[in-house]
Amino acid sequence: MKRALVIGSGFGGLSAAAFLARDGFSVTVLEKNEWVGGRARVLERDGYRFDMGPSWYWMPDQHDRWFEQFGVRREDFYAIHRVDPAYRVYYGDAVPGEARNVVDMPVDRSAARAVFERYESGSADALDGYLDDCRRKYEFAMRSFIYKNYYSVFDFVNGTALRNLPLLNILQSYGGRVRRRFRHPYLRRILEFPVVFLGGSPTGTPAMYTLMNHIDFNLGTWYPQGGFGAVVRAMQAVAEGQGAEFRFGHEVVGIDVEPGGSRRGTASGVRVRTPDGSESRMEADVVVANADYPHVEMSLLPEEYRSIGPKRWERAALAPAVLNFYLGFDRPLDEFAHHTFFFDADWETHFDAVYRNPRWIDDPLFYLHVPSKTDPDSAPKGHEAVFLLIPVAPGLADSPERRQVYLDHALTRMEQRTGRRLRDHLVFQESMSLSDFEEAYHAYRGNAFGLGQTLFQTAWFRAANRSRRVGNLYYAGQYTVPGTGTTMSMISGEVVADRIRRDGV
């Protein structure tokens, strides 16, 4: 039986492990940390439970499809609930009784149309037409790109793609596509915010990705009961059911490569630091790296076997880093929905600070995830669990003092909405930002979402899921195809397992 080693137990590693075990490999997953799921980490303390990473459960049909391929049902592991309203957005100044500065985006399409029409005459019909276009993009992408391996550029630029160029709007930006249809800034921001999950700005993300608005409005925003910890534990159970073995506290510190011809080699195994601090070696016939791609290339591989060197990583368009706070309050916070955005600061300044001129700014946009609105087990009775996320530029200097300044600033803006001193009810507090991401995940420059989804970091142009220098080294996760995010990372594991199967490794 051939031996497959999977480095990292994020969504991509879990998925790859399950498929490779199903295909007959002896699979061992090596995870440096003590938890499953990588960035889908869970913090449980003092009666609170927080998802420390992903909090948006989108594309539920693709999650269900993943479980079905192993002869099981997602429902047998965890339930999901559609969040309604999908999210609440705060704009402008906090004026008591001023409803126009607060938008709840309802699940019902007719109610969503009414929200749009309230701000811009004719925008309800424009929304229907726009979302129909987004749906066609989504269906085409799922049919033609998402579950696809790329062996040459012709797999990307083919007859199907050429025939559908008008649909893809390849020369337009996401923001340009939105702004052609809608004038009101509130509506534009509602449609543009998903670019954060794509690791880009509205002007730097291809219009093809407006398919995210179909995911948002038509497929819906869901919550997995028990949080994302329930999702990764379910995937682990499926992988173990197929025969995969998991070893936690086992950090891969090097990949051994045997030289071959034409400057190519073969991974013969990996070196692992075990929980007691000693090192051991594990042999492999195939290695799948779900650890962060730059870390694997620049820290685990000998220099002569790197596919992507430091200079290319320096030029890459990275997704944002984040400043996260995990907050427990000893009272309910009725003013906030399960998902709540604070778009009450300057939109363009924040994007400029994240993507063009990296810096800490005084008035950032931020997002609240309040799982206790849907899942009472995430906080003590009568309390509220709040995950506060601020997108920031990767590579910034992170410090406890900076974190406190940002927390105080966010709490002030939250208090303006509630009319109460929330600080007096804050009974639990933890934070996580760039330095923690670097330590826990070997995240390049502390980023949170991998590579941005720019035109030249999509499909064939994205970091390949097979090494160009090491024949049996493959990649899964948010740096490679099909893209960033939990669902795309999950799909990446299926895609890379298919490539391994076709390669006959």
As a percent range, the share of helical residues equals: 25-40%
Question: Spans with pLDDT under 50 lasting ≥5 residues?
Answer: none
Provide the CATH architecture of the largest domain. Answer: 3-Layer(bba) Sandwich
How many structural domains does the protein architecture include?
Answer: 3
Main sheet properties = 7 strands, mixed
Report the average pLDDT across residues: 95
Tell the overall outline: globular
Structural class: alpha/beta
Radius of gyration: 22 Å
Number of strands: 19
- Name the CATH superfamily classification of the largest domain: FAD/NAD(P)-binding domain
Number of helices: 17
First CA to last CA: what distance?
12 Å
Task: Characterise the protein shown here.
Helix content is 35%, strand content 20%. The chain contains 17 helices and 19 strands. The mean pLDDT is 95. The protein is globular and about 65 Å long. It is of the alpha/beta class and 505 residues long. The protein folds into three domains: 3-78 and 226-316 and 451-503, FAD/NAD(P)-binding domain (3-Layer(bba) Sandwich); 109-219, no CATH class; 321-392 and 399-432. The strands form five sheets. Strands 7-6-15-16-17-14-18 form a seven-stranded mixed β-sheet, sandwiched between helices. Strands 9-2-1-13-19 form a five-stranded parallel β-sheet, covered by helices on one side. A three-stranded antiparallel β-sheet has the order 10-11-12, with helices on one face. It has helices at residues 11-22, 60-68, 109-119, 123-144, 159-163, 165-168, 174-181, 185-192, 195-198, 211-219, 228-241, 293-300, 310-315, 347-356, 400-418, 434-441, 486-503; strands spanning 3-7, 26-31, 42-45, 48-51, 80-82, 87-91, 102-105, 222-224, 245-248, 251-259, 265-273, 279-283, 286-289, 321-329, 339-343, 366-369, 384-392, 426-432, 473-475.
